[in-house]
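Example record used in the benchmark description.
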Amino acid sequence: MDQTREIVRLVDDVLGPVALGTYLHGSSVLGGLRPASDVDVLVVSRRSMDDRERRALLAGLLVVSGFPPEARPVELTVVVRSEVCPWRFPPTGDFLFGEWLRAGFEAHGPPRPEPMPDLAPLITMALAGNRPLAGPPPARVLDPVPHEDLVRASVAGIPELLGDLDADTRNVLLTLARVWTTLATGEIRPKDAAATWALARLPPEHRPVLEHARELYLTRQYAEESWSDRLRARVRPHVERVLAEIDRLANR
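Model output (structure tokens):
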């Protein structure tokens, strides 16, 4: 199954001309999909979806999104253009689908509009990647995000991220490395590249857990992930060190 083609077809079937453009972001545009990468898609729409459209889009995504090797997980975000053009913070997202939310959707139905700070890095990646699946280039329908709002959005997601540290260790460590890198350089880099940047700036005692997370990201599915007790014991000290660096940059 060509997932991107299926996603474009689904968006067109549900939204038709309401969709202004459909764009790749995330790993697809930052350096290539890795074994456990999602297919990250942003849809820019003319208006908020109605209940019928929400149900139809969710039903289709529950089928299209899957798990390797048959299919990759899909993360799809819909934003109404008038909510982000002109840009303001925090932006409102109209719809967000991801595999980590599947159980909630199946129990309670489709997502509703909500504040979505993560749209700042998402839009930044979509603009930089310039990979339209449908519609014009993203720069014709999206405003650039100011660096200060990219910083605000990156920092805003940290408390929720830390809540997943034990269950999603690899992703949390790599995301924190990317937040640090973004604040320091102004660039959103691939997770493995962000980890490489961070490793060069960490003292030796704080490198092993991030080296392991990078290796897992490059070579392993989530189901194949493993952490020794020795590495587990080093995770929180590593996180505290990285958080200190993030805090220093965010408050300078």
